[in-house]
Write a structure and sequence with these properties.
single chain; 6-stranded antiparallel beta sheet; 13% strand
Length: 452
């Protein structure tokens, strides 16, 4: 059984036509199990908790949004396969992806680089283009929601985040992870696909540098940087640097669409309108490039993709959520190993009852319900549960829980320092200077008295 914990005594052994094999994790919405359909294909089965099961309006909204998510074209995404909210308990079935999240892979192996980073950027942009083409806003795109499977990167939880956000007025329970939230999300304003674009820029910056572009030190500091500061993108090279910078624009109207990002990544940005591929053709090209089967991408300025072993067609195998353990042979695209050259990467911390926010500290923040974002909890190191969702509005602080051990820093790279929220003099310097001056005056007075 791949990377699953044994079932507990109170767990069901079957849900509908799915046999449950073990636990993949638990989050705010419920428990995620590793399951198997009648054909022996392994799937991820998310069982919704009692709050969802008891609220008929919430269930109807959830079912509507998740059914819409099933219409997303299967390009670089983990598909929603089934939903049964009439069952007791209600559950949602997704493809199972055997592999670590991007959050865990960067923590274990270091940042992505070269053709590996390019393929990751293409895969995630392709996924967002397909999601947006279906009329869905992910609202919770971050490293914990990108899984590195055997056939490339897959984006998960794109339907559930929107469904959760739509129930904000019913639940009045908002929890968010600001490290990859857009300014309009932080403010609790209505969001559209451009919020996902902002998050994509942050995720690619994290993949290339090993940290979130607005830091991960404290909720107030990160929120302030998201709203007012420039992102820290040291270590990210052109031409990807220019694309990411455009995506992290504070003004959503100036951010590119997912299709525009994909055009730039595939080298079609300068092509005439008649020569540019259509939406479906572009998604197909994006998926081929993400799998490394297109070779070099002309005119893009990105390194050519390295040859890959033959792969099955995407969508034909079992895919879904990562298990709590590490894969036996994780995909590595980071820098070569070597002795550690810098301090450990600060590990995300955890609020009570929640898994670590990807690239963010041990603070959740809550606020009144509103049109804010969904929120996904990324996997813990051991065991590793799947990402889970909530909703977010204007922030207010909630108590944090105990900080976990920081992750072991990947060998061979030095993480860039988090951006400083106050570039001025240290607060302790002024009292030290004043005290030193008073001490000098006191010594002069003593010398004068003794000489007199």
């Amino acid at each position: 059984m791949p990377d699953a914990e044994p079932l507990l005594s109170g767990d069901p052994e079957e849900l509908g036509s799915y046999r449950l094999l073990g636990r993949l994790g638990r989050g705010g919405q419920g428990v995620v199990y590793l399951g198997e359909d009648t054909g022996g294909v392994r799937v991820a089965v998310k069982v919704l908790n009692d709050e969802w099961a008891a609220n008929s309006s919430m269930r109807e909204r959830f079912e509507k949004e998740v059914r819409a998510a099933r219409r997303v074209a299967p390009f670089c995404t983990a598909q929603v396969l089934d939903v049964n909210l009439d069952h007791e308990p209600p559950f949602v079935v997704s493809e199972f992806v055997q592999g670590p999240s991007l959050q865990d892979a960067v923590a274990d192996e270091g940042p992505r680089s070269g053709s590996g980073l390019h393929r990751l950027a293409v895969a995630t942009a392709t996924a967002l283009a397909a999601i947006h083409q279906a009329g869905i806003v992910h609202r919770d795109f971050k490293p914990g929601n990108v899984l590195l499977g055997p056939d490339g990167a897959r984006v998960i939880d794109f339907g559930i985040a929107k469904a959760v956000d739509g129930t904000a007025t019913l639940t009045s329970s908002i929890v968010g992870t600001p490290a990859y939230m857009s300014p309009e999300q932080v403010e609790g304003r209505q969001v559209d696909t451009k919020a996902d674009i902002f998050a994509w820029g942050g995720v690619i910056a994290f993949a290339a540098t090993g940290r979130a572009p607005f830091g991960s030190d404290s909720v107030p500091a990160v929120v302030q940087r998201v709203m007012t500061a420039d992102p820290e993108l040291a270590g990210l090279d052109e031409p990807l640097l220019g694309i990411v910078r455009d995506c992290l624009d504070k003004d959503p109207s100036r951010r590119p669409s997912a299709q525009r990002i994909l055009l730039r990544l595939l080298g079609h940005d300068d092509a005439e309108a008649d020569d540019k591929p259509g939406p479906e053709s572009m998604l197909e090209q994006g998926q081929r490039a993400a799998l490394g089967s297109m070779g070099s991408t002309p005119h893009s300025g990105f390194p050519g993709a390295v040859p890959s072993p033959p792969l099955g067609r995407p969508g034909t195998g079992p895919h879904g959520y990562p298990g709590p353990g590490r894969p036996a042979a994780p995909h590595r695209t980071g820098p070569p190993t070597g002795p550690p050259t810098g301090p450990p990467v600060p590990g995300p911390m955890r609020a009570p009852g929640m898994t670590n926010p990807a690239g963010f500290p041990n603070r959740s923040f809550t606020g009144p319900s509103g049109p804010g974002t969904g929120r996904t909890l990324p996997p813990q190191p051991q065991p590793r549960p799947p990402a889970q969702h909530g909703v977010a509005g204007p922030p207010r602080m909630a108590p944090g829980g105990p900080a976990p051990r920081p992750p072991v820093p990947p060998r061979g790279y030095t993480p860039a320092p988090a951006p400083r929220s106050d570039p001025g003099l240290p607060a302790w310097l002024l009292p030290v200077v004043v005290g030193f001056m008073l001490l000098l005056v006191f010594i002069v007075v003593l010398i004068g008295l003794s000489s007199g």
